[in-house]
Amino acid sequence: MTFLFTVSPDFAPDRLSGWYIFNTWLQKQTDSAIHLEMYNHYQQLHQAIEADKIDLIYANPYDAAMLVRNKGFLPLVKAQGQADEAIVAVHADSPAQDVADLQVNSRVAFTDDPDVRLMGMIMLEPADLDVGNIVPVLADSHVLVAKHLLKGEADAGIILAEAYDNLSGVIRKQLRVLVRSQISVIHHSLMVGPRLQARRGELRQVLLNMAADEKGGGVLAALGFSGWQAVDDEEMEFMIDLMDTLNT
Amino acid sequence: MISDMKPEDIVGDYREAELAFYDGSRRKVLYTELETPYPDGKLIVSTTTPEGVIRQVNRAFVEMSGYSEAELIGAPHNILRHPDMPAAAFKDLWETVLRGEKWQGYVKNLRKDGGYYWVKATVIPNVRGGKVVGYTSVRRKPSRTKVDECAKLYPTLR
Ligand SMILES: Cc1cc2nc3c(=O)[nH]c(=O)nc-3n(C[C@H](O)[C@H](O)[C@H](O)COP(=O)(O)O)c2cc1C
């Protein structure tokens, strides 16, 4: 049997080869056939999840909730010391100095990444902005969110903090961050679906040993991670509860 | 049981009030007009037992409340109860979460130093294996307009 592995479409494009190397490493370590399938958009990913095609997934917190509650997935590990955060940025010349300066009917650019959008919209609440009174500007990537700001096509943009930090200095100089989230407890997780659950303990051990493994360290570096850390059921439940409270 | 507030902990001029809690206990609180603004981008997170006793707090909770983590863990959540908050708000909170639903509202909280801070709070029941094992509350920065509305409305509900 070949298992299907996928990664939430919000991964950084320069990590694409890293995920393929990771998959090759994992197949060797576990002596299993695992096929890595990348989806470009959440819509395609969600169709695959709905059709019960996925066995292993590096999922964002938003999808993790649905995967656990509706699809019987269980958490394995998360990237050591990493958390998902978002920023709200404006053009450097924007008159807005504070989120509260943003007006009703502001054009707000974001991608279809549900976590980042959720965190961003929460940070817009102090300005009395919500999905009902902004003009959404949907962008295909975080870089394009930045471009909408630079071209004056959006008044504010919501970007994954890590993606913002990786934008070129030239672009960042022309932008200004109004607010950066400091939530710390929301993170991506590597999770197993029902068909792989009998091997959960084995998979987790392989991953936890990865940083110490001769080849594993280099594979992790290609992903931008220093190692994996176990996520237990209660930590995952807590994060789901947290996403639930935010999603109101 | 939580102890009365002590004058030596208070910063600035204060007034006194005696609060009567749902469990029958009472507490003398000292409160000032000093507002601590809610920090941008942060969330205050806590979890409680089904009875409302604090089990877990994050760093933002400690910073904003002015209490140490050790003082908070094991204390009832009404350690933050401000005399300006109408009892009806918390009655509604508990009735809502006991029905298994999410509660959301604007809350003025009392700091250990007598000052206050406004939050937009969401409380949800933590369901594990079909049973409520506690509650989680997440507070975020509220809009000034909403805070101003509540600051006007709440005294009329007390
Ligand atoms: C998860 C959770 C969080 C709460 N957070 C607060 C809070 O921040 N401030 C507050 O005054 N009461 C909070 N409460 C409500 C208190 O438990 C309590 O009902 C309230 O302070 C009024 O006190 P009383 O019910 O003893 O009269 C919270 C309750 C729960 C379950």
UniProtKB/TrEMBL annotation, chain B:
Source domain of life: Bacteria
InterPro entries referenced in this protein's UniProt entry, alphabetically: PAS, PAS-like_dom_sf, PAS_fold_3
Gene3D superfamilies: PAS domain (3.30.450.20)
PROSITE patterns from the UniProt entry: PAS
CDD domains xrefs: PAS
Pfam families with a match to the protein in the record: PAS_3
Domain PAS, residue spans: 51-74
NCBIfam families: sensory_box (TIGR00229)
Protein name per the record: Diguanylate cyclase
Organism of derivation: Methylomonas koyamae
